[in-house]
Amino acid sequence: MSDLTKLTLAQTRDAMRKGDTSSAEVTGAYSKEVEASGALNAYVEGTLNIAADQAKAADQRIAEGDAPDMCGIPLGIKDLFCTKGVKSQAASGILDGFKPEYESTVTSKLFDAGAVMLGKLNMDEFAMGSSNETSVYGNVVNPWKVDDRDLTPGGSSGGSAAAVAADLCVAATGTDTGGSIRQPAAFTGITGIKPTYGRVSRWGIVAFASSLDQAGPMTKDVRDAAIMLEAMCGHDPKDSTSADLPVPNFEAALTGDIKGKTIGIPKEYRMDGMSAEIEKLWSDGTEMLKDAGAEIKDISLPHTKYALPAYYVIAPAEASSNLARYDGVRFGHRAKLDAGDGITEMYEKTRAEGFGAEVQRRVMVGTYVLSAGFYDAYYNRARKVRALIKQDFEKVFADGVDAILTPATPSAAFGLGENMDPIQMYLNDVFTVTVNLAGLPGIAIPAGLDASGLPLGLQLIGRPWEEGDLLNVAYSLERAAGFVAKPDKWW
Amino acid sequence: MLDLTYDAPAPKTIAGATSDWELVIGLEVHAQVATKAKLFSGASTLFGAEPNSNVAFVDAGMPGMLPVINEGCVEQAVRTGLGLKAEINLNSAFDRKNYFYPDLPQGYQISQLYHPIVGEGEVLVEMGDGTARVVRIERIHLEQDAGKSIHDMDPHMSFVDLNRTGVALMEIVSRPDIRGPEEAAAYVGKLRQIMRYLGTCDGNMQNGNLRADVNVSVCKPGDYEKYQETQDFSHLGTRCEIKNMNSMRFIQMAIEVEARRQIALIEDGQEVVQETRLYDPDKNETRSMRSKEEAHDYRYFPDPDLLPLEIEQAWVEDIAASLPELPDAKKSRFMADFGLSDYDASVLTAEAENAAYFEAVAEGRDGKLAANWVINELFGRLKKDDDKGITDSPVTADQLGGIIALIKSGDISGKIAKDLFEIVYTEGGDPAQIVEERGMKQVTDTGAIETALDEIIAANPAQVEKAKVNPKLAGWFVGQVMKATGGKANPAIVNQLIQGKLGL
């Protein structure tokens, strides 16, 4: 078959099952693409030998006829996932050379289902960033370009987004703490879903902010997201925050029928200075859902404006504690010490050398907001705001809203190096952080192009544990939007 | 059952240069929870393993690893709380206490600051002199132990052993109700006793499985009463915390020397600075552990990796129903049922195994006699025999009971019983059979004793005359009869006959 790397996950699965192609063939085609993709800097560690072996084993399972959906599907894995025996550094210098002795629950599930690992994907260091510029491996370049300008793929799952958009893998794993799946998905014209907090096990994923982190799939379309999410989900006794709930067949939920569903349009998401393009995208999306038979309802989520500041207190607070283990004692980087240096100098030098500027900034912010005398003013207040934001959503869902439609990002992808002010950078998460704070499922899908031809995404927010319904609304919107654009291959 | 009621002991008073001073002491006791696995990992808690062999990935703080609560540790904490008559909190939560140290791989200790699993309780601390202090427990929380840093193995390197990292501890926090060094040691002893009864902590202080941080302050007579009335701590002096004490003796010495240090400071016009201190037993002094600029801000916050800990009342009730009889109840029952003294009852209930042994001996027999034999003969003999414990006793409760039965029936005298005990101790065997086989039975046949006595009287007329003048000399005849009968004559009958024959 030609153009194997253009197929979706579902198409690849079906073609392999029919015998039209094999995992070995597909994996070979992607391997070539990976090897030729250096200019994008999406992969930071290739595992093509592992992939070839996995593909072989997958083909045998497919031949035996009992292959799960993910069997033989070549994936890229975000560097935040610990993969046994394969370098897993969370794109940080402090985990220099770290090869875990264990496999994350998510990657275990995927590989047990027969998925193939092409390599580890670039990301913002410790998933802290919205442009993939904080990685120790250097920035990822968005496969989409305007006038030869290098653009960000977004972050933190920038490598995952770029790899899927550039057909360097069928699909990729991502993680989302404040928008790290949905924002890069929107910037690269692909689909990304962050499931309900507790849906996917966090075990073996390097922690950023434990109460917000969730892994999810980044895929070429909604059907692929449904298939891959199902393979990633499930109760894990090794993660105390993992929910003991059955995993539905998400693909079966994709009927495209959303008649009678109520879609909420939150007025607080209409920000001052929102670009006309984003506004039009949003109203176009609203119309599409309406045309598909959904009822449109104006809703209010009154505490939305406090979400970003609350997020930038809670996430750094948790991060400052989660990242304390990177101390040079047991693994990763340890600074060279001078004569007379003691344990304090070892900590200070190791962490100063090993962590990048953004990680250091957040560790300091987090340390500050938890410190004596400031805890109540910052951390505790942020927790209260978080509870109010959650209540906002609970109220509208109780009032009969099935899903909420918002823009995914305030703009299309911006140029690399353009957004150097941290506060400006944090504003990228303005539409996405509320979802993490409330623990809800959220999905970003491409819905149009801006004037310069860059993809723009819409976000749908669902009821907790109702990813199936959410995916179905997204599926309906995807069909109506008919987004088919692909970046021109320049790399 | 008797109610154990005691007067409170007098507070320890130290005479200073300007006035008398009283001591105020509160303890934070860290008790290692007796479980096979650690608080949040499946790694073993076995003491004495090769360094770094009992370490799960999560204990070592590896990236992406997550804690999962060990239900067994929760159950032991609840059991301990119930044993200390404390309130059990059905909803509790874990917090992170953040600080850097090489033997703390995560960079934080998981503890329970805001919502501990056990609330207020109390402990009766007997002082052995007829007084006892009721010490209020403020709370018990579960937390992780740290590992061990070893700085003296190499001139340039430090080593870390993570075997202990993540082992479950119960921190038992008392109110400042303890008023002297002896009370502090007795309090730790009582906690240890209760937890050993419960099976929730082995109480091994040498291995560090039970250790205490001791808060000491001094105040002038009368001030403590003002604190009691108002619960206002400002009536008390500034306290210092002496960390990590794992010997009852050192706890007492440290309190004494720290109190004297504080008194000297105050009387010299200086202030006591609130700080943590270490006790140096070699120099018998306490030293400041860290300077003010290094004072820790632990940045406690709820651990986001763990859900709030919710337990059910029914489960707590099941645990309550399974509690063994505890030391206070057992002691008062022994006093009531066996007529034992407070002292004997205390000695016998010090360890659950001792109490069980005693009960088996005393069952259906003379309780006081049984107590005397267990405490004086058996414990004394075990002590001489390499300080053996009751569980290693070569004499079973059945055997000792058999000896006591033989005394009670008059088959053997108390003196012969001691010989018999030694035979049973060293050679084993059924006491009744030994007595039979070796002819140790007491001679109660008056005729036989009379014959022997008559012969002695006939042979010693001078002694007879002396004894008639001085009846105290009758003892000589007792000895002679015993000698003649190989010690088997019933002493009561011998005495009776001598009295009659000599007309005393």
From TrEMBL, chain A:
Molecular function GO terms recorded: ATP binding; glutaminyl-tRNA synthase (glutamine-hydrolyzing) activity; transferase activity
Limits of the Amidase domain: 25-471
Keyword tags: ATP-binding, Ligase, Nucleotide-binding, Protein biosynthesis, Transferase
InterPro entries hit by this protein: Amidase, Amidase_CS, Amidase_dom, AS_sf, GatA
Catalytic residues identified in the record: 78 (charge relay system), 156 (charge relay system), 180 (acyl-ester intermediate)
EC numbers for this chain: 6.3.5.7
Pfam family, one: Amidase
Enzyme class: ligase
GO cellular component, one term: glutamyl-tRNA(Gln) amidotransferase complex
Entry superkingdom: Bacteria
Catalytic activity: L-glutamyl-tRNA(Gln) + L-glutamine + ATP + H2O = L-glutaminyl-tRNA(Gln) + L-glutamate + ADP + phosphate + H(+)
Record-level GO BP terms: translation
SUPFAM superfamilies to which the protein is assigned, alphabetical: Amidase signature (AS) enzymes
Assembly: Heterotrimer of A, B and C subunits.
Function: Allows the formation of correctly charged Gln-tRNA(Gln) through the transamidation of misacylated Glu-tRNA(Gln) in organisms which lack glutaminyl-tRNA synthetase. The reaction takes place in the presence of glutamine and ATP through an activated gamma-phospho-Glu-tRNA(Gln).
Family: Belongs to the amidase family. GatA subfamily.
HAMAP family, sorted: GatA (MF_00120)
The protein's name: Glutamyl-tRNA(Gln) amidotransferase subunit A
Organism: Cognatiyoonia sediminum
TrEMBL record, chain B:
Keywords in alphabetical order: ATP-binding, Ligase, Nucleotide-binding, Protein biosynthesis, Transferase
Catalytic activity, as annotated: L-aspartyl-tRNA(Asn) + L-glutamine + ATP + H2O = L-asparaginyl-tRNA(Asn) + L-glutamate + ADP + phosphate + 2 H(+); L-glutamyl-tRNA(Gln) + L-glutamine + ATP + H2O = L-glutaminyl-tRNA(Gln) + L-glutamate + ADP + phosphate + H(+)
Any one Gene Ontology molecular-function term assigned to this protein's record: ATP binding
Domain of life per record: Bacteria
Asn/Gln amidotransferase domain location: 356-502
InterPro entries found in the cross-reference section: Asn/Gln-tRNA_amidoTrfase_suB/E (IPR017959), Asn/Gln-tRNA_Trfase_suB/E_cat (IPR006075), Asn/Gln_amidotransferase (IPR018027), Asn/Gln_tRNA_amidoTrase-B-like (IPR003789), GatB (IPR004413), GatB_C_1 (IPR042114), GatB_Yqey_C_2 (IPR023168), Gln-tRNA_amidoTrfase_suB_CS (IPR017958)
GO biological process: glutaminyl-tRNAGln biosynthesis via transamidation; translation
EC nos: 6.3.5.-
Family, similarity comment: Belongs to the GatB/GatE family. GatB subfamily.
Annotated HAMAP family: GatB (MF_00121)
NCBIfam families, sorted: gatB, PRK05477.1-2, PRK05477.1-4, PRK05477.1-5
PANTHER family hit by this protein: GLUTAMYL-TRNA GLN AMIDOTRANSFERASE SUBUNIT B MITOCHONDRIAL AND PROKARYOTIC PET112-RELATED (PTHR11659), GLUTAMYL-TRNA(GLN) AMIDOTRANSFERASE SUBUNIT B, MITOCHONDRIAL (PTHR11659:SF0)
Role played: Allows the formation of correctly charged Asn-tRNA(Asn) or Gln-tRNA(Gln) through the transamidation of misacylated Asp-tRNA(Asn) or Glu-tRNA(Gln) in organisms which lack either or both of asparaginyl-tRNA or glutaminyl-tRNA synthetases. The reaction takes place in the presence of glutamine and ATP through an activated phospho-Asp-tRNA(Asn) or phospho-Glu-tRNA(Gln).
Subunit structure: Heterotrimer of A, B and C subunits.
Protein name, UniProt field: Aspartyl/glutamyl-tRNA(Asn/Gln) amidotransferase subunit B
